[in-house]
Fold DNA 3'-5' helicase.
Amino acid sequence: MLPKFELDLSSVVISIVCTKGITFEEDDDTENELETDVPFEQLQKGEEHVNPRKFDKLDELIKPIAEQLYEQQSDFPLTVIYVENLESLWYYFRYLEYELKEKGYNGENITENRMFAQYHSDYPETMKQHIVKDLCQSKPILRLVLATVALGLGLNAPSIRRIILCRPPTTLQKYMQEIGRVGRNGENAEAVMYFNNSDLSKARAGLTSSVIEYCKNELFASGNYW
């Protein structure tokens, strides 16, 4: 049961999915971290300096999203994927670049026409402003944003139709804040959260018992295992 906040989520379908051991936000050894100048083709070949098994896990989430965006283009429901781990965010972004190529643009292949974007605290301020401005349009060019919580409170983008959380936030208040950015125009919308047992470990810093209880109760009620 979710706490009551001043949000109207009546048009939003909320679901949680247990990934049965697949986690999209695990804390790996730093020696296997993604190097941002490594071509995606090398990642696919499993070079020695990366951990290909780790990226196989990330592919489980981003592959169907990329396929849907490739097919639907501007009809793709405007989606925000919240990611805690910058390494995973960068991987998702480069996966989309590699798979979509020119199909990732609405018109000329320039940044302003790209249909997917990344948003985090280290991103250039001018680009963050461009993303927020576009999201708030009635017909934004952007269809998919990979974001950290830096895409925060105060964002009022009625066109957002889907929120995907790669990991449960540590509190229910944060959870409500993140899914509360979808369905603001009253149209049908969707909020999906993925997790596994390691995401709900009591050893995870800041994780509240209310989040653990909510995830387990909702999962039991839905039987939504992946």
